[in-house]
Design goal:
Layout (H helix, E strand, L loop, with lengths): L2 H16 L2 H7 L18 H6 L6 H32 L5 H13 L2 H15 L5 H7 L1 H17 L4 H8 L4 H29 L3 H7 L6 H10 L3 H26 L11
Helix pairs in contact: 2-13, 4-7, 4-8, 4-10, 5-8, 6-11, 7-11, 8-10, 9-10, 10-13, 12-13
């Protein structure tokens, strides 16, 4: 395939991915947009000004969504890196069953998972709280982190750790100076995926948060259901912004423009 054909194919793919976002962007700067108008008759930034007004719920929801996604990503990495190392480096009996069990939360509908966990969290006093929402977000985020890190460790040379220990390095020194630099790109990719998955959660947040933990997806669904297309467009743009940035970073990483996941160029 020629260079021009590849560029045309890439441009077509980008256009196909961006096309659904165009109406949302237009709604966020439109004052009334009715059929059969191709473009809004009146343009205004009033929806954005209302979104960040003093009485608006959007800034608080934005902060809550960011904090929950960061906390869920950090916990998913803390649990997923050791689990990914075990799956990537070692062979043991029942490994396939473990991998299938990790896929279960992704396969099972979110509403079923949320209702099942809700009963447990209700007894533990974790419902209607940000902590409960962070913990339930581990259900969809942790499998992504574990599988990404298992792929990283599948290409990881553990002999470097043995050589470092033979030269007198202590366990923390091996971890900090040998393992972490080698897996850092993979950790970044896993963390970005976890952040993105947590950021976009609606069913689990609503089920465990009970409507008291207000995030951007909850506001987006509420505004869209109420027919407030202008505010829904603003919320959609805010919700999509981190995803677009993260996808750009991951695409650059996977394309090999930076360090590869395995830690080599």
């Amino acid at each position: 395939m020629s260079a021009r054909a590849r560029m045309a194919l890439g441009a077509l793919l980008i256009a196909a991915l961006m096309a659904p976002l165009v109406p949302l962007a237009l709604w966020s700067v439109a004052r009334g947009w009715f059929f059969p108008q191709i473009l809004p008759a009146t343009w205004t930034f009033e929806p954005w000004m209302r979104a960040f007004a003093a009485r608006s719920d959007i800034p608080g929801a934005l902060m809550t969504t960011t904090c929950i996604a960061l906390a869920a990503s950090a916990l998913a990495l803390a649990l997923g890196i050791p689990a990914g190392r075990a799956l990537g480096l070692y062979r043991f009996r029942g490994k396939t069953l473990v991998e299938l069990a990790l896929l279960a939360p992704v396969i099972v509908p979110g509403i079923a998972v949320g209702l099942g966990i809700h009963g447990v969290f209700l007894r533990l006093g974790l419902t209607n709280s940000a902590l409960g929402v962070v913990l339930v977000h581990l259900v969809p985020t942790l499998p992504y982190v574990i599988f990404v890190m298992s792929g990283v460790f599948a290409n990881y040379d553990a002999e470097a750790e043995a050589q470092a220990r033979s030269l007198g390095a202590r366990p923390l020194q091996v971890l900090w100076h040998v393992m972490l630099p080698a897996i850092a790109p993979g950790v970044m990719v896993a963390g970005l995926f976890a952040f993105l998955v947590s950021w976009s959660q609606y069913i689990l947040t609503l089920t465990i948060g009970g409507g008291r933990v207000v995030t951007l997806p909850l506001l987006l669904y509420a505004q869209a259901g109420a027919g407030r297309n202008d505010q829904a467009g603003v919320l959609a743009m805010l919700s999509l912004a981190p995803g677009l940035v993260i996808l750009a970073l991951v695409a650059r990483q996977l394309a090999g423009r930076g360090m590869t996941i395995g830690g080599t160029r």
